[in-house]
Design a protein that fits this description.
By secondary structure, the protein is α+β, with helices and mostly antiparallel strands. The protein has eight helices and nine strands. Strands 4-3-9-8-7-6-5 form a seven-stranded mixed sheet. Strands 1-2 form a two-stranded antiparallel sheet. The longest helix has 26 residues. The relative contact order is 0.16.
Length: 188
Amino acid sequence: MKQIKSIGLMLIASFLMNASFAQKMMDEKTVTVGGAPMYPSKNIVENAVNSKDHTTLVAAVKAAGLVETLESAGPFTVFAPTNEAFDMLPKGAVESLVKPENKAKLTGILTYHVVAGRLDTKALDEKIKAGHGTAELTTVAGGKLWIMKKGPKYMLKDENGGMATITIKNVYQSNGVIHVIDHVVLPK
């Protein structure tokens, strides 16, 4: 009888802990990306894998071996291209990049989309103001990106003059922030 009471108490305690966790998740202010809520208490990878708009990016991150890095403490600012953005690359480019022999090139492109630190739009606005309309960002890959505002829109320019627009901003993560972009930015 004591065993049954103990098991019953353990089940109730487990239920209450799960309910508490579920309530915490429901209380978090989320942004929906690719049809899925992005939880600020989860890391970049834990959230990105749920976005149906970022399956190409997630596959590329896995192929480049960057999962562990993007699960680490960071913080990171990630400019995350959508599947549609990857589809704009020349035919066969993505398929070629995810091949093992092209891992270094893929890693360079992906880390070009990452800046150290947690740069939400408030921080970006401060940098843009200090730069008199344009802020220069140094990527984890060592390259440069430039961010500016055109009206209410944030525009990102790569080293080749390519442009991307932030379509969803300030997607907070436990280890940084993601800004969804509509084009892949490329280093020189």
